[in-house]
Design brief:
By secondary structure, this protein is α/β, with parallel strands linked by helices. It has helices spanning about 15-35, 55-60, 65-80, 95-105, 130-140, 165-175, 185-195, 215-220, 235-240, 245-250, 255-265, 370-375, 385-400, 415-420, 430-445, 465-475; strands at about 5-10, 40-45, 85, 105-110, 115, 130, 155-160, 200-205, 225-230, 275-280, 285-290, 300-305, 310-320, 325-330, 330-335, 350, 355, 365-370. Strands 3-2-1-4-18-17-16 form a seven-stranded mixed beta sheet, with helices on both faces. Strands 6-14-7-8-10-9 form a six-stranded parallel beta sheet. Strands 11-12-13 form a three-stranded antiparallel beta sheet, with no helix packed on it. Helix 1 (about 15-35) packs across helix 13 (about 385-400), helix 5 (about 130-140) packs across helix 6 (about 165-175) and helix 15 (about 430-445) crosses helix 16 (about 465-475). The N and C termini lie far apart (about 50 Å).
């Protein structure tokens, strides 16, 4: 196998998949210049949703202004026309992995991590106990989650000390009028507007020196209007003298910034809250049990202390917090794909530097992985570039070595013809441009009459999958 006429399918149109396609395109072009020939490359980018961008569109809180820059970058990559977007196609339902492998020299899986990692404590299944992944999908207008969310609690616990926990807590505590400048759908605004919440508590097992936030996330927390940030001196005192935290502080400017921010929120003994809502940050609390008679009524924690090596140990002291809802934000996990090996323990596709391997550790020719499905849900969005580079480099090395399997000559119709024959209403890049324009039009048409301050909205998301597909395929929403 040479690099002549290389055909690649990428499954997943989030950042990982788009970066992989862009890096592959650039590297093949560079190789062509080296050999003085124009190498033919075709890339099909499959996505189960009608719209691209994955985590950026449906997994990040809408009030992060820096996300706009990432979307613009991803848009430019797809708008080049070198990658064919094929949306609203479910692998394993609309087309099988085996059928992809028959039609392409290589398949790269970039499906991410969409479900919550488990929190194994008693009571976790009580009504009022929610996974953060589902809540994030709701407030981001994901088409496959219910349109309504039960926001009935005055006091809420969020368990976790990462950026997702902060996103969830901030959206819960924020006054919905302060989210109107984002792209939240109308049903999300109405749901948040009806919430009676007054207090949101975020709990972490380790001390303030070991939080998994990023400085910008933490800083944004303190800028939420009419929400007081509350931290507790006893948590800082219990964490004092931890050699591991001190070493982190000495070696990391990021930790220094976050430590300074957290300490800046400590209040004098006579401090009195003035905002209508409060967001509490608790450290050195390990969840033990969620309790309630038929639904969530409280959470029990064991106070922990630093062990000196970055871990914590229990103190035998337990404390109960009365809450009416719990949000679990302890991490994400990937889901298996039919026809692809999957490590159920690690929740990833087993691979060696992006080359997918079988149960014996033998590489499967022409099958690759990148992003969170490759390495697990760790790191920021930018880390997926490094993942994609590693995977694509191995793919091209395999192509040059002649070990990629050739597509089956009599496999049948082009994949788009195959989907058409099966009646699959797939969407395209041109369709996304139509949907994008429609959502921007909804934002422009928004009226802020009745608000104290005029609100400008860049876009309002369309939530319904059927509406997204209709707009994408016809360029206009058909009246229902």
């Amino acid at each position: 196998m040479t690099l002549q006429n290389l055909r690649v399918a990428i499954v997943g149109a989030g950042p990982a998949g788009i970066y992989a396609g862009n890096i592959l395109r650039r590297q093949v072009a560079a190789l062509g210049q080296e050999v003085g020939a124009e190498l033919e490359l075709s890339i099909d980018l499959f996505e189960s949703l009608p719209a691209p961008y994955g985590l950026i569109r449906y997994g990040v809180a809408p009030d992060h202004p820096r996300i706009k820059g990432i979307v613009n970058s991803l848009h430019e990559m797809l708008d080049s026309g070198d990658v064919r977007l094929i949306g609203n196609v479910e692998i394993g339902r609309d087309i099988e992995v085996a059928e992809l492998r028959e039609r392409y020299d290589a398949v790269i899986f970039a499906t991410g991590a969409l479900r919550d990692a488990p929190l194994n404590v008693p009571g976790v299944e009580l009504p009022g106990s929610f996974g953060s992944a589902d809540f994030v999908a709701w407030y981001d207008g994901h088409p496959d989650v219910p349109r309504e969310w039960p926001l009935e609690a005055e006091s809420i616990a969020v368990i976790g000390n990462g950026n997702v926990a902060l996103d969830v807590a901030r959206v819960l505590a924020k006054h919905p009028k302060d989210l109107l400048s984002t792209d939240i759908p109308e049903n999300v605004y109405e749901g948040l507007a009806a919430s009676p919440v007054t207090d949101v508590h975020v709990f972490g097992r380790r001390g303030p020196g070991h939080v998994k936030f990023t400085p910008i996330e933490l800083r944004e927390l303190g800028e939420v209007p009419d929400v007081d940030i509350v931290v507790y001196d006893e948590d800082f005192e219990a964490a004092a003298g931890d050699p591991h935290a001190e070493a982190l502080h000495a070696s990391s400017n990021q930790v220094k910034v976050m430590t300074r921010t957290l300490n800046g929120w400590r209040k004098p003994a006579d401090w009195v809250p003035t905002a209508s809502r409060r967001l509490h940050l608790h450290f050195l609390h390990g969840p033990v049990e969620i309790t309630g008679d038929g639904r969530v009524e409280s959470v029990r924690f064991e106070r922990t202390r630093p062990a000196g090596d970055g871990s914590v140990v229990g103190t035998g002291v337990f404390v109960d917090y009365p809450v009416q809802a719990v949000y679990r934000a302890v991490g994400y996990a990937s889901s298996p794909l039919p026809g692809v090996p999957f490590d159920e323990v690690a929740a990833v596709i087993p691979n060696v530097e992006g080359r997918v391997v079988d149960e014996h550790g033998t590489p499967l020719p022409g099958v690759y992985a990148t992003g969170w499905i490759k390495r697990g849900p760790v790191g920021l969005i930018g880390h997926t570039k490094g993942d994609a580079l590693e995977t694509v480099t191995h793919l091209l090395a395999d192509a040059q070595a002649g070990i990629l399997p050739r597509p089956v000559e009599d496999a049948g119709a082009d994949v788009l013809e195959l989907l058409q024959e099966r009646g699959v209403p797939f969407t395209t890049w041109e369709g996304w441009l139509a949907l994008d324009a429609h959502e921007r039009g909804l934002g422009e048409a928004f009226s802020s009459d009745g608000f104290e301050v005029p609100v400008a909205r860049e876009r309002i998301k369309v939530v319904s999958r059927d509406e997204q597909v209709e707009i994408s395929r016809s360029g206009a929403l058909v009246d229902s």
